[in-house]
Every structure is written in C-alpha cells, then in structure tokens.
Amino acid sequence: MAERFLSKRNLRFTLFEALNIQEITQYERFATHNRKMFDLVLDEALRMGKDLIWPACEEMDAIPPHLENGKVRVHPVVARFMAESGEGGWIGAPFPEEHGGQELPITLAMACQFIFSAANYSAAVFPELSTGAAHLILSFGSPELAETYLPPMMAGKWQGTMALTEPDAGSSLSDITTEAVDSGQGYYRIRGRKIFISAGDHDAVENVVHLMLAKIPGGPPGVKGISLFVVPKLRPEGGKLVENDLICTQVYHKMGYRGTPLTELAIGDHDNCRGFLVGEPHRGLVHMFQMMNEARLGVGMGATGIASAAYCQALEYTRSRTQSRKMGNRDPLSPPVPIIEHADIRRMLLFQRSVVEGALSLILQCCRYSDLVSVTQGEEKERYHLLLEILTPVAKTFPSEMGVLATSAAIQCLGGYGYCDDFPVERYFRDMRIHPIHEGTTGIQGMDLLGRKVVMQEGKALSLFAETLAADAKKAEEFPETCQSGERLVLAMKRVEEVILHLVGVAGEKGAEAYLADAALFLEMFGQVAVAWQWLISGMAAARGLAVAKSKADRNFYQGKLLTMRYFFAYELPKIEGLATRLTDGEALTVDMETAWFED
Fold it and tell me: Would 452 be classed as within a structural domain?
C-alpha cells in the first residue's frame, strides 16, 4: 500500500497561493502567527498523520471496537493519538490563549484535520469531537463548567461528544424524549436513550463528556423546549470521578468508519444521572447549532480527506499497472503501457482530482470566512457571516455525495483488485458512505439551503454570493487560461438565479412542500457552481504561478491544475443544465406520488 494519502504541494497551494490565508495575520488576533509558523504546523500534522495514525488504519478497520465486560475497547493508537493531540495543543489550537489555546486560525486547524482524515479517518474524529464539545462549553457554559471540563478535554484525557439522536428522533430533534428534571441542587437528573453517538464510550481516555440535548418538563413544545447539558460518564465529585448512571449498551456494527465506536447509551436508569445546564434553559438547539455547523464543515473535510486518500491510491496504481497499448498501436509485440496512459483512466483520475481539490478549496474558503467573521466588524463582518451561512450546507454535502462517486471511481481504476481488500480503496468507499448521513442528511442540507439560506434577509446571502462570483470572474479576464471559464461561471450563476425565481413562484402557487420537494437537486446544482468558483480561483493562482515557474516540477503542477479546472468546467459544470430542467419543468412528481402506489 502506497504511503501517500494527500498532495502536500496542493494543500500549500490552496492555502497560500489560491486563498492567501497568510493575509489573516494582519489582524491583531492572529498577529503572532506567520507563514513560517503555518508551515511548521502543517509539517507536524503531516508527521503525526504519516507516522502515528496512517499505519493503524487497516488494522482499525479489520478489528473494530467492541463491548467487553461493560467497556468499549478501541485500537491502542487512539490513546496515543489523543494523548499527543492534547500534549501538542491540537485539540484546543483555535481557542483563545487565556483558555489554553493558540489562537490558530480555523483555516489552518481545518487543514490539519484534512491531513488527519486522509491519513486515518476513524482515528481523526476522536480529537475533532473533543474540540467541538470543548468549544461549546467555552462559548456557552458557566465559568465553573469551563474550569472543570476544559483542561482534561483539551489535554486529550477526556473525550467530548455530541449526543443528539434518539431511537425515535433522528433528524427531527423536536421529538426527542430525553428528560432533564431540575434537582434544585445545581444539577438536573437526566433520563433517556441516545443512539449513534460517535466515540460515545471507549477505553482510550479516562472519561467521556457528552454535550447532550434534553427537555426540561414544562418547557415550550418542539425545538423551543430543548436544552443543552454537559453529561459526563463519570462525574467529578469530591476530588474524584464517580459513576454517573450512564452506560453504553451496545456498539453498532458498521459498513465503514469502523475504527470509531458508534454507541447506544442508557441514561439515568437508576435516576442518578446528573447533567449540568449549558447556557439558558430551552436554548439548547441554538447553542448546539454552533457545534453542528462546525461539525458540518468537519464532515465535509472528512469526506474530502477520504477521497484524497483513495485518489492517491488510484494514481499510484495506474502509474505502475501495465495493460494494453495506446490506441492506434497495432503491434501486438510492443510492450503494454501503464494504464494511466489510457484516456478513460485519465478521465476517472481527473474526476477524482477535481472533486478532492475543489472540495478542499471550498471548505477552506468557508473556514477563511469564519476567521474573518471573528476579526471584522459591521457590514464586512455581516458579509463574511452570510457567505459562510449560505455555503456551509454545500461544503458539507458536495464532498460527501461526490466523494462516494470519487471513491467508486478509484475502485474502477484498480479494476477487480479495487473490489477486493488487497488494496484499501474498497475501505475508503465504505468509510465514505456515512458522510451523506452525518450531521444532517443531504435532503436536510438541501432544505436548509433552499428553505432558509437562499431567502434569508430577503435573499441578501444569495446576492452577496452572486456578487463574489461575478467579481472573481472579472479578475479571471486578466488571464488567457481562465477568461473563458469566468464567463461560463457567470452564466451558470444566472441559471441558478433563474431556477430560484421559478421555485419562488412554485412556493406561492403550490406551497412549501412543492417548493422544497427537490431541494436536494437544487443543492447539487448550487454545489457544482460553488466548486466551479473555487476552481476558477485556483486556476487564476495557477496561471500566476505558471508565469513565474522556473522548475519543471512547478510547471507540471500548474499545468495540471489548469487542465483540471478545464475538466471541471467542461465535464461537471454542464450537468447543472439537466438539474435546472428538472427543477423548472413544473411537475412535483415526488409530491404527487401516493404512498399506496409503492405497493407491489
């Protein structure tokens, strides 16, 4: 198995040449950082990925976590990775210095998450979950909660999770039944069930801290009655940790992503599970959305990392595997050529590369907006916030859905070997499949985009997005290599706006159900345009680089970038026309279909 899971050259190109994230250091919050320090951070993340977690990924898949005598056993590398993530400051890297963080830009932190996810996705999620949970406590918890829970969580000694899903309440969180009764003594008694909790229990840490949604009796109905609690497996009490009436009842057996335990939790069966309110009562979902939005970007980046690893394996294999001869060569005695010489193999490799590098750029662009939100004020701050809002469901979904197709293409590149476990691409395909489900299904992300983000503030976020694309298309006129692609991008965005205008009319005529019936298809269309935009940005950076490149390696890299941009505009972006036709043809087929008609 080739020891390569990403392109270091492309990661640095995206960060520093295409997105220019080093410019963030002009702001006071990030003024202690510089490009040299960013490179050192990336180098250390690459070391950890390659030397620590990459060697264990095959074994973590083959020997998944299991429940043994009431304890969940995970691969030993998890304990080492959590410890090193804590000791090296990785878990709290983006946090303020006064809380033990390093004020690392979120963009750099997410780039490191890409490295870890590409090296070993199952291992990567453990510290990532702790970062999200700790950030939630820091943002909304009391000083006492922060003082108690943040140090061991950031040190990698305690695991953080988000505990939302229940047996009868998955995406519909308004239907959760987990209950929190105020004891009048500074804590709530928690009782209920949670399922599908990633890293919900394991032996690589001393304790597990759940950020859990529950309802306080007498609160408002639906989502307005949800509150957020810290619910530890072991609660700190009198200087020691004591059992908190919270047990893992099963570990689910999964198709992929097998190195991380997915758990079912029984909470408060003996009426002795204590939870501690985070923020205000009945504001839990509002608070939790911070972690959920961060997690959506994290899911997208996880999918991008897996697709990157699969692409690297396919690239390595097709360079070394020989078969057949070039088209037009009729000499049966001539040696076969590496299969990468065949046009159809190159098509599949270009598809994978366009997905991986386009998705990476989009997610890092979102992270850049998040960093800018934290250091700007007024209209500028609102601009970055609205762009981040409208792009977040896209950044979660495009790499998740397209990653399934990209890893499938990697299998196809290897032929029969790709379908067998002799090579890891079949594992990457299995690992990828959870991503369209995690943190809100594709359908939910589509409804979020079309039902909320597109129309928020009377369409202001959409207008800002269109203006941003138009401005970059104007810049693209400066380069012969990108001029035509810029024109195509402007036309594609106009097509999106035409579809929205039509759908708004549908909403007025037929109601919300018809308006949102094909929201997932709209999201797919919007995603193609958003990633085409990122490819245009990368294309301009590549054109600038090519103009001054001195080495053959640099020229090859930039030329490859430009051709992959051309591929995306020629092969992928035109697909929006078929989607636009479906979205505007006036037939709400999925609404019109009767349930009874599905019967045999």
Answer: yes
In three-state form (DSSP H/G/I as H, E/B as E, the rest C), the secondary structure along 57-124 is HHHHHHCCCEEECCEEECCHHHHHHHHHHHHCCCCCCCCCHHHCCCCCCHHHHHHHHHHHHHHCHHHH
The token duo for 507 is 């909403």
Q: Point out the catalytic residue in the list 294, 426, 439, 524.
A: 439
- Res. 1 pLDDT band, cuts 50 70 90: very low
Residue 322, classed as helix, strand or coil, is strand
- Both tokens of residue 125? 């999620």
- Residue 450, token pair as written in the block: 């079309």
Distance of alpha carbon 316 from alpha carbon 309, whole angstroms: 11
Supply the pLDDT for residue 3: 64
371 neighbors 384 (Cβ within 8 angstroms)? no
Phi, psi of 95, deg, nearest 5: -75, 160
What are the two backbone dihedrals, phi and then psi, of residue 169, each rounded to the nearest 5 degrees? -150, 90
Domain count, the chain: 1
- For range 22-47, the mean pLDDT: 97
Residue 331, CB-side half-sphere exposure with 13 Å CA sphere = 6
CA distances from 2 to 10, 43, 183, 313 (A): 18, 19, 57, 7
User: In this structure, how many other beta carbons lie within 10 angstroms of the beta carbon of residue 177?
Assistant: 13
Contact 307, 352 (CB under 8 A): yes
pTM of the predicted structure, to 2 decimals: 0.97
Contact present, 337 and 326 (Cβ < 8 Å): yes
φ, ψ dihedrals at 249, nearest 5°: -100, -20
Task: Could you list the beta-strand ranges (E) of 145-200.
Answer: 158-163, 179-182, 188-198
Give a yes or no: residue 502 inside a domain: yes
Taking the C-alpha atoms of residue 552 and residue 574, their distance in angstroms, rounded to an integer, is: 33
Q: Which residue has the tokens 């949970």?
A: 133
pLDDT for position 325: 86
pLDDT band at 586 (very low <50, low <70, confident <90, very high): confident
Closest CA to 439 of 253, 290, 559, 309: 290
Percent above pLDDT 90 for the chain: 90
Under DSSP, is residue 166 helix (H, G, I), strand (E, B) or coil? strand
Neighbours of 533 (CB within 10 A): 25
Give the C-alpha separation, 52 to 84, whole Å: 10
3-state secondary structure of 338: strand
- Residue 439 annotated among the catalytic residues of the structure: yes
**Residue 476 belongs to what domain range?**
442-588
Indicate if the pLDDT at residue 332 is higher than 90.
Answer: no
CB 18 within 8 A of CB 24: no
Paired with 262 in beta bridges are 198
Q: Supply the DSSP string of 213-270, one letter for each residue.
A: EEE-TTSPSGGGGEEEEEEESEEEETTEEEE-SEEEEEE---SS-TTS-EEEEEE-TT
List Cβ neighbours of 447 (8 Å cut-off, separation of 6 or more): 516, 519
Report which DSSP code applies to 32. Answer: T
Pairing of strands 188-198, 262-267: antiparallel
Q: For residue 348, how far is the Cα from the chain centroid? A: 23
Among 450, 457, 448, residue whose Cα is nearest residue 507: 450
Cβ atoms of residues 537 and 525 within 8 Å = no
Does residue 308 lie within any of the structural domains?
Answer: no
Partners of residue 234 on adjacent β-strands: 243
**493 lies in a domain?**
yes
Among 20-29, 71-80, 588-597, where is mean pLDDT lowest? 588-597
